[in-house]
Write a structure and sequence with these properties.
Bound molecules: pyridoxal-5'-phosphate
Radius of gyration: 22 Å
Distance between the termini: 53 Å
Shape: globular
Helix content: 40-55%
Number of strands: 13
CATH superfamily of the largest domain: Type I PLP-dependent aspartate aminotransferase-like (Major domain)
CATH topology of the largest domain: Aspartate Aminotransferase, domain 2
Strand content: 5-15%
Order of helices and strands: HHEHHEHEHEHEHEHEEHHHHHHEEHEEEH
CATH class of the largest domain: Alpha Beta
Structural class: alpha/beta
Strand order of the largest sheet: 2-8-7-6-5-3-4
């Protein structure tokens, strides 16, 4: 069992009365298992008391940058104060222990052993480390799509300048609202060639909010990979940031080889934190780019003048001194999420997003870009408003104190992204504001 269950913690006292979580890092077993959600969801209105937000704003932008719930804020403050008092001795006593506790907590969430978990500072940084570290060479190919975000495309382009591999982008659909899971899987499987070594996808597209059927895509890759030696298999790498902290799943259930996600969005974790989750096959095909401070073996190898051997999650975790008070508070963010319950988070996010989508679908001046089907969408709701650019629509919504965003994509959409901090009343208020844009 994972350590984040924090024996003795009363969930009602944490979530109902707003008490801080006790330390979650006492014991850090190497093998984690994703625990079941509590039987009942929390009282969502009381849960909002965990955030110190300006409630005069309706913040529908969890997909951008998180505010932290109380246990995370308190952990960050506790570590910052202790570093202010005893920077060296507190660092020495806690650094490896707390970074490893964060890795165990992430492993518990994703149901993988700690050795398969690396830490990074953001989705962007993790994606770059993965694509820079893959064993690609000239004559080999990365398959991605035209729908992926700048971060995936640019990290692949920069890596290809060094390793000489080629990048091919395909379309998965002719429009997200009409996309079908079967058709997307079919197009991907049909596009794999003998040269393809990496499939680089995004779990939930941050332009349209379309959620890809990751498990079905992994299943379609299995027979192709069964014919290949491990070094030639198609590694399935996913920018998972907008599914992580929303969907109730694990790495084995998703079936991909790499999943990278910032923790400072839907998980409401400390700013500047992220995770990289690897399959054993992925680790066998990756090299670190930034020297780690986390793996004792790496230091011994340097001192002894020998190769430290294959990569693992610790070696993939960049070293250097950093905003330790944030990294060290990551386990509390996972614990908070787990105490709410992954299944309850997923159901609540779906409920709010579906309410928003059906309200928008009924407005003649609005065209939804996100599929209505929760199997093909998560918490991102994207749309166009007739006669207004996405930027203008976002600004007009802000005059109502409804906080959405537009994305740097072409085409761009207005995005409202309800999360567990929001209520059905928030969604209805946002719908009123969008109705007023007619
Ligand atoms: C799909 C996707 N990946 C990555 C990012 C960047 O995430 P981070 O801020 O964690 O680097 C974003 C933007 O928010 C995004 O939409």
């Amino acid at each position: 069992m994972g350590s984040t269950g924090a024996p003795g913690v009363d969930r009602r006292s944490l979530l109902g009365l707003g008490l801080a979580a006790p330390s979650v890092v006492a014991a850090a077993p190497a093998l984690a298992q994703s625990p079941p959600s509590p039987a009942a969801p929390p009282d969502w209105n009381r849960l909002r008391g965990q955030w110190d937000l300006d409630w005069s704003e309706v913040d529908l932008s969890a997909m951008l940058f998180a505010a932290n719930p109380k246990p995370v804020r308190e952990a960050v403050a506790r570590h910052r104060a202790a570093l202010g008092r005893n920077p060296i001795t507190y660092l020495e006593a806690n650094n490896r222990r707390l970074q490893n506790a964060a890795r165990v907590a992430a492993g518990t969430y994703f149901d993988v052993p700690v050795e398969q978990v690396g830490l990074c500072e953001s989705t962007t940084a993790g994606i770059a480390l993965v694509y820079a570290g893959l064993d690609l060479r000239y004559g080999q190919e990365v398959l991605t799509t035209v729908h992926d975000y700048y971060v995936t495309h640019e990290a692949l382009r920069l890596a290809a300048r060094r390793n000489g591999a080629s990048i091919r982008k395909i379309a998965l659909h002719e429009g997200a609202p009409g996309a079908s899971a079967e058709e997307m899987v079919r197009r991907i499987a049909a596009a794999i060639t003998p040269a393809t070594r990496v499939l680089a996808l995004t779990w939930v597209h941050s332009s349209t909010g379309l959620k890809l059927p990751i498990a079905e895509i992994a299943a379609a890759l299995a027979p192709i990979n069964a014919q290949r030696a491990p070094a030639d298999r198609v590694l399935f790498c996913v920018d998972g940031v907008h599914g992580f902290g929303v969907e109730d799943t694990t790495l084995p259930a998703l079936g991909c080889d790499v999943l990278v996600a910032g923790c400072h969005k839907w998980l409401f974790g400390p700013h500047g934190t992220g995770v990289m989750i690897f399959s054993p096959l992925a680790l066998s095909r990756l090299s670190p780019t930034i020297p780690t401070f986390l793996s004792p073996g790496a230091y011994s190898a340097w001192l002894g003048g020998y190769d430290p051997g294959p990569a693992d999650g610790a070696r993939m975790t960049p070293g250097g001194f950093k905003a330790f008070e944030h990294v060290w508070s990551l386990a509390e963010a996972f614990q908070f999420h787990q105490m709410v319950g992954k299944a309850h988070v997923a159901a609540r996010t779906r409920e709010l997003a579906s309410r928003l989508k059906s309200g928008l679908a009924a407005m003649p001046h609005v065209r939804l870009a996100t599929p209505a089907d929760p199997r093909l969408s998560a918490g991102i709701v994207s749309f166009e408003v007739a006669g207004l650019s996405p930027q203008a629509a976002v600004q007009r919504l802000r005059t109502w104190r409804v906080i959405g965003s537009d994305a740097p994509y072409s085409p761009s959409y207005v995005r409202l992204t309800p999360s567990i901090r929001n209520t059905p009343q928030d969604v209805d208020f946002a719908l009123q504001a969008v109705a007023a844009l007619a």
